Amino acid sequence: MSNAELLDRVTVRLGRRGFGKDSTLVASSLCSDEVNRPLEDIFLKYYGQHFAMGGLAGFPFSGMTGFGAMASHIPDEGSCLLVYGPHVGVDSDGNVGKIIRRGKEKSGSCCGSAIAATRYLQQVLSGQGEILPTPSTPMDAQQTYVSNFLLPYASEITASKEPMVTLPYVTFRPIDNMMSGIVAKGSSKVGPNGKIAMLGGLQVSRKIVWRRPPFSHEIHYFAD
After folding, report:
1. Burial group, residue 54, by CB count within 10 angstroms (0-12, 13-18, 19+)
2. 196 burial type by CB count under 10 A (0-12 exposed, 13-18 middle, 19+ buried)
3. Rounded to the nearest 10 degrees, how much is the dihedral formed by the CA atoms of 83, 145, 89, 7?
């Protein structure tokens, strides 16, 4: 469904459960890639300012500290909506894992972080590379974590007939596990009457350069 369709469904269903337009704080955990901003923007236009929890590939790298800070920003007697998940590009030729960006003639990787991680996974599986240690500096810590979070799924990704299709679905699992863990530990920080809604899914970004349906961004959601 398109972003607008998703927003409409979310607002109707959450509205029935007491999530008010002016009393709900949206917290997003989407990849840093600029192609993900339209989804955040459409929620921002409806609910107002949002809290950013995400980093590379969509992992909620702000962790417990970020969630706690977000919870303290929820309006009095209000609730929070968590929007999270990985993304994947599809270019105009139907190539999954690529997208044509603004001002670019050729397609580029999308999600670049997840795709970079697959090269690391192939090296580890083939014995040509070693498992990266826990980062000791912040210089590229997020990418190291993304790579190692995907390591348990290395065989599934590399054995797939369409690795770029499998990759985003697989990437959702550790992101969802991480977000669920954060919520489980931090839910008490939300006010006594507050609620937490989790909307996790896979965002598909498409840059249309020839006749196609009139939308450029979609999200396929898993959580209702």
Report:
1. buried
2. middle
3. 0
Interhelix angle for 112-126 vs 163-186, to 10°?
Answer: 100
Q: Coil, strand, or helix at residue 206?
A: strand
- Residue 35 in contact with residue 208, Cβ under 8 Å? no
pLDDT at 213 over 50: no
Tally of CB atoms within 10 A around 132: 15
The pLDDT tens digits of the residues spanning 36-80 come to 999 999 999 999 989 999 999 999 999 999 999 999 999 999 999
Cα–Cα distance list, 149 to 6, 58, 131, 154, 183 (Å): 28, 12, 11, 10, 19
In the chain, which residue ranges form alpha helices assigned H by DSSP?
3-15, 37-47, 63-73, 112-126, 141-149, 154-159, 163-186
Give the pLDDT band (50/70/90) at residue 224: very low
- Amino acid occupying residue 119: R
SS3 199: strand
Q: How far apart are CA 102 and CA 5, in angstroms?
A: 25
Q: What is the pTM of this model?
A: 0.89
- Choose among 190, 197, 188, 200: nearest CA to 73: 190
Integer CA distances (angstroms), 35 to 39, 99, 155, 158, in order: 9, 9, 29, 26
